[in-house]
């Protein structure tokens, strides 16, 4: 049975807010994972650019004694070369964690706001949350 217009608007705001929070949680998780996994690349490229004479040419002691232009160029190239496999590793970690926590099924359909009878699910019924109907066999992707 359809909800009244005011009730529908209120439920739409609640569901929209919840979906935004789930999106932000996914985004935060992805940001943390990618930052941790790509940290070696970030550090290597940073030191390569910092010590190269054509880019920043820092006056730090390690730039003068250890890194010259050739080694700085090698660091920059190494950083960009190891970035591709680390991106794949980071994405695999995020996808596996999102699948295990069932984060992609936490998005609630807006039909819960339009029609009465839909119900929210509890964590014990299939992960952190589940879609309408509490189907524990529901998968975000196959």
TrEMBL record:
Family the UniProt entry places it in: Belongs to the TMEM88 family.
Any one GO CC term of the record: plasma membrane
Protein source organism: Rhabdornis inornatus
Membrane topology: Multi-pass membrane protein
GO MF, any single term: PDZ domain binding
Keyword Membrane assigned: yes
Keywords associated with the record: Membrane, Transmembrane, Transmembrane helix
InterPro entries (alphabetical): TMEM88 (IPR033355)
Organism ancestry: Eukaryota, Metazoa, Chordata, Craniata, Vertebrata
Record's subcellular location: Membrane
Transmembrane segments: 21-49, 74-94
Protein name per the record: TMM88 protein
